[in-house]
Design brief:
12% of the residues lie in helices and 37% in strands. The protein is mainly beta. It has a 3-stranded antiparallel β-sheet, with no helix packed on it. A 3-stranded antiparallel β-sheet has the order 8-9-10. The chain has a two-stranded antiparallel sheet with strand order 1-7. The longest helix is centred in the first third of the chain and has 10 residues, at 9-18.
Length: 145
């Protein structure tokens, strides 16, 4: 299940805080999912901004803040009456190699591998770009998100 991103942010923030998640580290309008952990207990899956020495930093390709998917036990149930919905959310990641450049700046290059994942559990793993399903195939199976 996905938390409705149109629900009042204050209520979502209070619920995240009650479950030990800092809502300030969860991107606005990101998808927050409730699922089941490997032990069968309810868990919250969410994206969290990463920090280094207490500060947020950019991802390896410099296109946005560094973040990762996190999972935490759900200690407090979501507010009553909150609208929940289930939907697909595709994520495409491109693998990048990095090394120090001769001028001291980092150099980056694509490895030719990408990963496609959906919150329904579908994943390709790191796959050569030429072998990935087409965007038409992916959106027909997982929607246009």
């Amino acid at each position: 299940m996905v938390v409705n991103p149109d629900h009042p942010r204050e209520e979502i923030a209070a619920w995240l805080t009650a479950n030990g998640v800092d809502p300030g580290d969860v991107p606005l309008h990101s998808h927050i999912n409730i699922g089941t952990g490997s032990d069968g207990a309810p868990v919250i899956r969410y994206t969290e901004f990463l920090r280094r020495n207490g500060h947020r930093y950019l991802n390896d390709d410099g296109t946005g803040p560094a973040s990762e998917q996190r999972e935490t036990p759900m200690l407090v149930a979501p507010p009553e009456g909150q609208q929940w919905r289930t939907e697909h959310q595709l994520t495409i990641r491109t693998q990048i190699e990095t090394r120090p450049g001769p001028d001291g700046w980092a150099e980056h290059r694509k490895t030719g591998l990408s990963l496609v994942a959906c919150n329904c559990g579908f994943t390709t793993g790191w796959t050569p770009d030429t072998d990935l399903p087409s965007l038409v195939e992916l959106t027909s199976q997982h929607g246009g998100t």
